[in-house]
Write a structure and sequence with these properties.
Blueprint: H1 22-29, H2 33-41, H3 48-61, H4 67-74, E1 79-84, H5 92-105, E2 109-114, H6 119-131, E3 136-140, H7 146-154, E4 158-162, E5 173-176, H8 178-191, E6 196-201, H9 207-220, E7 227-232, H10 238-249, E8 259-262, H11 265-278, E9 288-290, E10 307-309, H12 312-332, E11 344-347, E12 350-352, H13 355-358
Parallel strand pairs: 1-2, 1-3, 3-4, 4-5, 5-11, 6-7, 6-8, 8-9
Antiparallel strand pairs: 10-12
Helix pairs in contact: 1-2, 1-3, 5-12, 8-9, 10-11
């Protein structure tokens, strides 16, 4: 079927530098401009055959949609930003995948950013998302970003704090009660008769880690002969756990903790692997090891890991659903960022007992 020459020529059509428009694509594919718009923003509304015709037209003409212009024109962006403080974490991919599923179901798109633990980088990404006029932001922060999020709300950009409970009653958040989770872990160790507990953690500046320390101390303080030793590691990785175990194994047995509570499973897996490989420290006979998060590999390590289960996928789903609600509320408000009490969802963790604390 012969198609007419488009009004605006792109480099892929005749070598001209004129800008190809959505109208050109519609004429080339012999569909309406609204159908081309649906191809980019609501593709599920179109048949496979129609999508293929439009795809071929877009490829032939070299058309690139201008979402920034669309946002300025309609006031509606199809993009949500997600800032994570630790993309390498074993839990972040599961949270992000749950967010993506919810966002995709609304014909929206997710842009992920990693602040690498830098508060400055965190703020730079928030500024970037603001400049891009995203519909909303989910952020698992390193620092205190609630003032920046309040400013974004006043600009019409919704937000949800993820993995940390908001301080302000007007800031929506989805979190896990890490104080309660740490209590579960340390109480389990105390009930097993362990009294010299080592708390293996990286920077306590991170609120989630500080909460776990606070929960651990709240149990230790109730037991007269119990102690909590802070064992610092540079990062929360398997490699850091191996190095930590090597240092502990070089201590005299009387100077070692009789139990370790690690702030995540990766550290605990590294510690257990090193102890078992070195054969100088038995798990759990000499040192019981407790992790945190219950990641996929926790139950399949050489000594299955006792841990605290946190709901990663549920947290991501709840964060996305809450953000979509916040976006709808902001769009329906007469003035952006109006003060109201926002939902603050908090999940309760669960103790999972395996061989690393009670034996085979």
């Amino acid at each position: 079927m012969k198609r007419g020459r488009p009004h605006g020529q792109g480099l892929g059509w005749g070598g001209f530098l004129n800008k190809v428009t959505i109208r050109d694509v519609a004429e080339f594919a012999q569909v309406s401009q609204a159908t081309v718009s649906n191809y980019f923003h609501k593709p599920r509304k179109l048949s496979d055959a129609t999508r293929e015709r439009i795809r071929q037209a877009v490829e032939t003409l070299g058309f690139v949609p201008n979402d920034a212009a669309r946002t300025l024109r309609t006031g509606v962006s199809p993009v949500i930003g997600y800032v994570a403080f630790e993309l390498a974490s074993a839990t972040t991919p599961e949270i992000a995948a749950a967010i993506e599923r919810r966002v995709s179901a609304q014909d929206m798109y997710l842009l992920m950013a990693n602040d690498t633990g830098s508060r400055m980088r965190e703020r730079e990404y928030l500024q970037l998302f603001e400049q891009q006029r995203v519909a909303g932001v989910i952020i698992s922060p390193v620092g205190d970003v609630e003032a920046e999020l309040a400013r974004l709300r006043r600009r019409g950009i919704a937000s949800v704090l993820s993995a940390r409970r908001a301080v302000s009653s007007v800031q929506a958040s989805v979190s896990t009660d890490h104080v309660a989770g740490a209590r579960l872990a340390v109480q389990h160790l105390i009930e097993l008769g362990r009294r010299k507990i080592g708390f293996v953690a990286s920077s306590l500046d991170l609120q989630q880690i500080a909460d776990r320390q606070r929960g651990a101390l709240s149990v230790i303080e109730t037991v007269a002969d119990a102690t909590l030793e802070i064992i610092s590691v540079p990062e929360r990785t398997v490699e850091a756990g191996i190095a930590c175990a090597d240092r502990l194994a070089r201590r005299r047995p009387a100077d070692r903790p009789d139990a370790l509570f690690c702030v995540n499973d990766l550290l605990a897996i590294g510690i257990v692997s090193s102890f078992v490989a070195g054969r100088s420290v038995r798990v759990p006979e000499d040192i019981a090891v407790m992790g945190y998060d219950d990641i996929e590999f926790a139950q399949s390590t050489i000594v299955p890991l006792s841990t605290v289960r946190t709901p990663h996928a549920q947290l991501g789903t709840a964060a996305a659903d809450l953000l979509l609600d916040e976006i709808a509320l902001l769009r329906g408000s007469e003035r952006a960022g109006e003060e109201r009490v926002a939902p603050q969802i908090e999940f309760t963790p669960e103790l999972v007992v395996r061989a690393s604390t009670i034996g085979a």
